[in-house]
Design brief:
mainly alpha, Farnesyl Diphosphate Synthase, three-stranded antiparallel β-sheet, two-stranded antiparallel sheet, globular, Polyprenyl_synt_CS, magnesium
Length: about 375
Amino acid sequence: MNEASHQGERSPSGARTSTTTRGETVTSAIPAVDTAGVNALLERGRTLATPVLRAAVNRLAAPMDTVAAYHFGWIDAEGRPAHGDGGKAVRPALALLSAEAAGASPETGVPGAVAVELVHNFSLLHDDLMDGDEQRRHRDTVWKVHGPAQAILVGDALFALANEILLELGTAEAGRATRRLTTATRKLIDGQAQDISYEHRERVTVEECLEMEGNKTGALLACACSIGAVLGGADDRTADTLEAYGYHLGLAFQAVDDLLGIWGDPEATGKQTWSDLRQRKKSLPVVAALAAGGPASERLAGILAADAKLTDAQLADFDEEEFASRAALIEEAGGREWTSQEARRQHATAIEALSRVDMPAEVRAQLTALADFVVVRKR
């Protein structure tokens, strides 16, 4: 982990039970979220980034342009204009605030916001295919509608566009921003590879899971939190500290995602019930439950060991009651509560990193509000 990585005390099983940062225990309490303020920040990110994002997608050859437009929710499966859910837009909002943290205008961060959003969606297109996810944002996924080949091609194209958008600026800052983006993308891919490999292992440690999630989610959010500042001329120390904020925010974000992947409301998440359990993911609640010890943990370990001997077809025959039973075991073993607390620990570490960057008070408050939103969100 980077310089802002926290060292928490561990239970005998390896799970953190408290967090210290720079020698002091940090609180895990989350204040009431300024929902209206956060929604305004997210909407500003969409408003400034979407026209540039659409223009980038329009460069793609047919049919990749329309496939990408479907993925972003701009058209339906028949090609008709639509107003689909384009995602939370947290990363564009962070990229614009990053520019303002460095004293630049939010518009300075737009190319970075678009580049990060393109990489994020490149990963979603490929992840949905690799994970076999049939629903995203309350609609059929691209591979389900347009086929696996188009999902792969469009994902690759979005990654290429991300680099084009930055390099076309032709500035030294753009080169620095591109290096950060490509490094984050490589870590993201590392994390996805780790995630897939863990599905076929009986045991994964808490440390391995956090490393994987730091790569898969933390790296790109860290980049989003620094890329606008870099485009605005910030020095590496400032950019690195903003990345530390984003890295720990990413771990908090993924911990909440892991909770929603098991216990989330499908109406809110747009995914199937028990989606992560269906895919045999070794997410934080599962890993923490297995590490906890005790009767529930041991029963869960036995069930997962038996799963390893089954074929995919046999696993697909599991009914809702089976997944509900497993979710109950994870909760009984403490996996749900530990993951909830881990989200708050990572949130506190992210907020602490902000204290090491000089920035306008309003921007600091907005970055804090976005961090609060990440931890209490329901989708």
